[in-house]
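Key result, reporting period 2: structure in, sequence out.
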């Protein structure tokens, strides 16, 4: 075997497909009973519910922009998938639950724009040991905003780190969102985002239900990869399991990983970001809005709901629970979570909010094969740690996945590009990304 790939998420399948196209013998080992990893589309209701990744964040300059149509994937424009103050119609509600009028909404987005401009200068002066929360407070003190307006921006910043990092503002480094710039529209997928990994897996040797327990490397003899039932040998190995799994130490590396890789694993954070989908018997919210949002302190713990009816064809809202709240809901029952979300919605829309007819709730932090949703730059770490984590180690052990790609961590396209980079390093030559679509069947 030339290369073994551990993990059949987008990073692993991208690397495997490119190496296979270059003529290598490649084996992909996946612990789950499906491909996709943290990209998981639930179709049990007769329509697509993306429990994992669901957006392309920014079409401009994104490798997925050309790849998705080549795979025959239908898209729907939805440009508030990254946490933004405005940009598309949002039903903004104030602290008392009243809907903001156009002037009040404009003042709100202007306040965020003003604070963000100052924030960039604050962050530029921050070290790796300063938190996003501390930098935000220094910024807000310089804005001159009234207490109420500053509280709204403060809450927005906290929700931003919850959604973008799956962590609290105190845990996230001031520089953590440096790369968080969305260029172009965003899209979601009526047919489900997991079409992408399923297409990438076509024609590959993928062994599902195969859990890797140990990897032994030698600069002269290559690698041995042990699973619970058998062992495999190859010249190279690419490990693409989530950062949370690496942190848990469920794969034993022999010799132990050097500090150049072990250090980043320890320093980087693994966030928790869960989804709650609610399907309603009828629509009760405003027409033509992308999202509903509650401002200020009353916007905790639930603050934003996204209208994803275009995907299902049914009246559906999606809300998120990130950071500490994301971890807390994993200890609650579905019924408790749904009741909590409904209480927050009824504070805005009153008795017009009916009981949902169905719901879907994720628990990525409790998933032993993920142990979180995606990586972030924690206080004390840096973006350099993402790239350092990629290795290689002893010329035979490589790492890929969103946590290894400093320019676009916590994204599907970051995962894809990390797999592309790993394949190029193994081959020692550039590989056109267009090779990914070779011999792919259109559905």
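The corresponding designed sequence is given below.
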């Amino acid at each position: 075997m030339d290369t073994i790939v551990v993990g059949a998420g987008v990073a692993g399948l991208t690397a495997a497909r490119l190496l296979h196209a270059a003529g290598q013998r490649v084996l992909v080992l996946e612990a789950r009973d499906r491909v996709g990893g943290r990209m998981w589309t639930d179709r049990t209701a007769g329509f697509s519910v993306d429990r994992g990744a669901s957006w392309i964040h920014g079409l401009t300059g994104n490798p997925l922009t050309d790849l998705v149509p080549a795979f025959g994937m239908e898209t729907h424009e939805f440009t508030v998938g990254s946490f933004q103050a405005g940009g598309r119609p949002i039903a903004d509600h104030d602290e008392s639950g009243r809907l903001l009028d156009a002037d009040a909404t404009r003042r709100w987005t202007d306040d965020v724009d003003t604070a963000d401009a100052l924030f960039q200068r604050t962050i530029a002066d921050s070290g790796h040991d300063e938190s996003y929360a501390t930098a935000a407070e220094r910024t807000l003190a310089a804005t001159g905003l009234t207490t109420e307006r500053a509280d709204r921006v403060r809450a927005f910043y906290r929700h931003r780190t919850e959604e973008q990092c799956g962590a609290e503002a105190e845990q996230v480094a001031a520089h953590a969102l440096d790369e968080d710039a969305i260029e172009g529209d965003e899209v979601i997928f009526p047919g489900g985002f997991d079409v992408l990994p399923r297409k990438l897996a076509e024609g590959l040797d993928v062994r599902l239900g195969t859990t890797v327990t140990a990897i032994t490397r030698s600069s002269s003899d290559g690698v041995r990869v042990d699973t619970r039932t058998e062992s495999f040998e190859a010249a190279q190995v690419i490990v693409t399991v989530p950062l949370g799994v690496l942190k848990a130490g469920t794969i034993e590396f022999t010799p132990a990983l050097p500090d150049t890789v072990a250090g980043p694993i320890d320093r980087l954070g693994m966030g928790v970001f869960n989804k709650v989908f609610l399907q309603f018997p009828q629509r009760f919210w405003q027409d033509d809005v992308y999202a509903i949002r509650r401002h200020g302190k009353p916007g905790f713990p639930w603050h934003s709901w996204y209208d994803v009816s275009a995907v299902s064809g049914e009246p559906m809202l999606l809300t998120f629970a990130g950071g500490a709240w994301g971890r807390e809901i994993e200890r609650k029952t579905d019924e408790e979570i749904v009741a909590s979300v409904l209480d927050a919605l009824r504070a805005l829309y009153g008795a017009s909010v009916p009981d949902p007819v169905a719901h879907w709730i994720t628990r990525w932090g409790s998933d032993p094969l993920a142990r979180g949703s995606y990586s972030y730059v924690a206080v004390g770490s840096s973006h350099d740690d993402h790239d350092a984590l990629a290795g290689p180690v002893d010329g035979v052990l490589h790492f890929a996945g969103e946590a290894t790609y400093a320019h676009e961590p916590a994204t599907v396209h970051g995962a894809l590009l990390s797999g592309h980079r790993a394949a190029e390093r193994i081959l020692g030559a550039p590989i056109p990304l267009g090779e990914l679509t070779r011999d792919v069947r259109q559905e």
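Residues 301 and 325 are 7 Å apart (CA to CA). Residues 102-124 form the longest helix (23 residues). This case is discussed further under Risks and Mitigation.
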